[in-house]
Amino acid sequence: MLESRKLTLGYEQHMVIKDLSFCIKPHTITTIIGPNGCGKSTLLKALSKNKKIASGDIFIDNQSIHSYSHKTLAKKLAILPQSPLVPDDFLVRDLVSYGRNPYLDWMGRLKEEDYRIIDWAINETGITHLQNRKMSTMSGGERQSAWIAMALAQQPEILLLDEPTTYLDIAHQHEVLELIKRINGEMGITVVMVLHDINQASRYSDRIIAMKEGCKVIEGSPKEVVTKEILKEIFGIDANIYEEVSYGYPYFIVK
Amino acid sequence: MKTDFRDTPRYKGMVLIGLILFVIVSLFISIGLGAYKVGPMDIIKAIFVEKSGMNHNIIYNIRLPRTFVAGLVGVCLALAGAILQGIMRNSLASPSTIGITSGAGLMSVICLVLFPQYEYLVTPAAFVGAVLTTVLIFILSWKDGINPLRMVLAGLAVSSLLNALVDLILIFFPDRVHNTLGFSIGSLSVKAWNDFNRIWPYALIGFIVAMILSKKLNILLLGDEIAGSLGVNVERLRVILILLTSLLAASAVSVVGLISFVGLIVPHISRILIGSDYKYLLPASALTGAGVLMLCDTIGRVVAEPMEIPVGIIMAIVGVPFFLYLLRGGIKSARK
Predict the structure, then answer these.
(1) Domain boundaries, given as residue ranges, for chain B
(2) Crossing angle, helix B9-32 and helix B64-87, to 10 degrees?
(3) What is the CATH topology of the domain spanning B5-335?
(4) What are B41-50's pLDDT values in tens digits?
């Protein structure tokens, strides 16, 4: 269980996240939505201990993330930033193998079990035929699959993704989201992601957290969050809400 | 698309073997050439068989320690450069561009002036200078990560100032530092076995620690966020690596003075040859650095006989055009 209690953090003068509390239930998909600069990416940094917290705290299984060692935390929580860096000539398989880092001794040697898990992660994300390629030769969707494979090799309980569909065309966006859905459904990994496309958030999430200016505006099921009033309040847009016929989730079109 | 042969461990192993041969050839060239020329067989005889005589004297007491010191200086500076380029995620980083060598140089000179009788204090003093300079550059160029432009500018400013201070001290106390000119441009002249003994432990320890951390360096290339998410204590790792590069650069500087370009260019050449995976890049840089410095020192000894050109000048003459070529995008075309 991932929980944020009265979290406040930011830069010297300007607090980017203010008094943010939420509780994410295990095995669910939660999507954070909100306008640019609402503090989503800063929140993800704080969750990976990459940003100092001013007050409040983040808890995993009722224990502050600051009481976990870096390695123990990495076994529970994996994070993929928005557009991660990678040297052009790193091989896909090597990249995935770095997911085993939290489990390795100080010499960093991979054991038989590690190789088995790397193979499994590569297989699950459907990039077996690409594993010996350079990252630079991969398409955007394939790269994203490689990064997700790396996170899977980490065997986390919780996976955080910052805009996993950025720079992808609609077909690949769908592919990546389906993969995330499968990871959640089959492996029971709790997923927290940031998405810009609210209709996609509505389609793929159990819960949605809507943020504005560093504060949580509302948290609830897609039906509770994707409404005329909320869209007006957060993004200042007038929209009509419809219900998707076969799945029953709400979607909107701007007036 | 099939796997590129150049991406296989087998190819990379072959490159490393090639580089080992390159170092061995450079070793014989460096020992054999000079005002007095000796063939490869005579070199082996002079080292392992003869116990006295002119060949033995020149080879064993003069050329051999000098060549070894050259090689190890190359190893230290190349490793320091490769590691710095990783932790700063910037291909323009190197011990000389960001002023680490100047900081180490200043502290060495101060130490030589204040405590001329304690030669063994020079390397630790240089180490302190190197660490302080690196920390200063980090503070000056850090803003949510290293800002490359700030880093280069801060390095330029800091190293100019420190170099000026080195020159100032050398002007006031010319008798305290042997070969003052040699120190400020980097020279291997009159290096003997005691110099070799001052550098090999650092080179060895530096290489071993760097190899142990090579995987972590790879992870650091993926950015702080990913590295943190993968369980790497990014801040601690960065401090350890800064101490390591400072140690490597300091041991080189305290023996030969301020040599530029080795730490900048050798990692680039190695990256073109073997790729950016640190597991291979570090040994490749060490070998290339050793060979390049031995050859450049030999060129300096031979090209204007009987005058000797300090290796620092040769490095600059060879290095600057190569660096400009790299800046013009040579890296990319060479990889493809």
Answers:
(1) 5-335
(2) 140
(3) ABC transporter involved in vitamin B12 uptake, BtuC (1.10.3470)
(4) 888 888 888 7
